[in-house]
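thread: overnight batch results

M.L. [08:02]
morning all. the overnight job finished for the chain we discussed friday. pasting input first so we're all looking at the same thing
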Amino acid sequence: MTFCKRIEINLVNRNFALFFIGALTLLAISTTTAVGQQSSDWAKRMFKEFSHDFGTVVRGEEAVHRFEIENVYQEDMRIQSVTSSCGCADVSISKNVLKTWEKGEVVVRFVTKNFAGHRKARITVVFAQPFPATVYLDISGNIRTDTVIEPGSVNFGTLVDPTHSSRTIQISRYGNPAWRIMDVKSTYPHVSVALKETARTSNYVSYQLTASLKETAPKGYLQNELIVIASDRPGDARNQISVPVPLMANITQPLHISPAVLPIVGESASEKVIIKADEAFRILDVTCSDHSFRAKAKKEPAKVHIVQIEYAALEDSPTGEVELTFVTDNPNQPQVKLKAIIQRTK
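M.L. [08:03]
and the structure it wrote out:
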């Protein structure tokens, strides 16, 4: 009897041990799953969106979308890798490491030259710091092969002077001889567009689009777009399509002048004007329609020039705005102009 009781007790202990081990295993699995979900949740909080539909695009079009990331944490955030499940999406990141409140971008380029039809891709963003995590982004779009843009954007590159700067692209349509470009629109007021039909056959239509920057184009980086309005059935607004064409330029200013405006109050004044550049240059001359101005500048090449401007009003000296022109030997910007506003007291 005693022996049987011991066996019964041992069996009970063994069953309890197995139950205890099983419970611990389930708890460990649940905990691991919860931690995995939490590790992804912290990274997701840095994104505003997780999907993008490019809609219908044409072959050759430069379709780009940027998923913004903002580090909302005190610790530095580091992205380990960004990959795409499909070659139809080319992905990159603007910054690998983001400080607190610093922003970055996952840049997705829809590859329209080598693919056709409806395409979709999943972008995998892997984080290494402050904790391992993975965030998934989804993109999709429909690539039309009957319409082709070459090149896919109007890119002026880096310019010093936008005057007389123009770029030409070709827009073609296959399979519909009635197809026409109805209009080209842009929200950027400093560009003009010329459109010319170059071919029309029973199976092919082609246009040449030339975009030119105006003299009024401001300095800085330009990122806008031209909207090409086309129709398979001219006269039927329901058959019109809008094709965006990226418009890009970087208009630089090698010479920087300060102040931006020179105030002159009274019958005489003495002011300093600072002109600087990244490379050494010389000031060859300073001209003005108002002979009341005199300028003193050193002749030696330098990256920074301090020009002494002397003003002594003459009897026929005007009031209001006049323009001073600084002539330099800088090959990228031979001249820089400065507006002077004169307020005479007599």
